[in-house]
Amino acid sequence: MPDAKLPAVPETILKRRKRQAENRANRAKEAIKLKVARKHKRATIFKRAEKYAKEYQDQERDEIRLRREARKEGNYYVPADPKLAFVMRIRGINQVSPKVKKVLQLFRLRQINNGVFIKLNKATVNMLRICEPYVTWGTPNLKSVRELVYKRGFVKVDGNRTPITSNDIIEGKLGKFGIICVEDLIHEVLNVGPNFKYASNFLWPFKLNTPTGGWRKKVNHFVEGGDFGCREDKINELLKKMI
Prior knowledge:
Blueprint: H1 11-73, E1 84-89, H2 98-106, E2 114-119, H3 122-130, E3 135-138, H4 142-152, E4 154-157, E5 160-163, H5 167-174, H6 182-190, H7 196-202, E6 206-207, E7 229-230, H8 235-242
Parallel strand pairs: 3-7
Antiparallel strand pairs: 1-2, 1-3, 2-6, 4-5
Helix pairs in contact: 4-6
């Protein structure tokens, strides 16, 4: 009986095997490249976060030092005018005049208890005056900005409200402005940097809870024991109850 020949492998199968082996090798190379890039990016993000932490600390120390020096001289220390404000809508949609409605739309405050970061300049202050009885606003500190972004932060991706699940989402949209992580975003908002407009617009308006213990009196100004209007740094106490 002649030796049983081994069945020859068809050419197509050999080609497919070769192609698959090449693809596997390419994928492995890409995976290694991605791993190295991710490691490098993580290190960059960590360095940036450290740099920002030091910057915030230095700013705080400078403020304290200047205040002490002024007191020693018998003067008063007047801090610089705030550049950032957090504006929150506190009243609903009933009986709102067209002008006020338009201003609230421009601020993206379409729902009650919605809040946004805005840059304070002559134009925005005048807009705030127009819609004052419907909003409350003030200057948030680092803790408030950070908590809002980390706990209540959603961003606009292709017109959809998307939770901030990774830094890649931020880098995908704001990478061209040098904003690649959440800490970059917080830094840009807090310091009202050159790309504040894009960073603020990228953040979806914050949806907050009604403050624990309720409002005091919405139809009165804050200085009259009510709620609406400017409350300067007292906004931080309110935000603590609402986040």
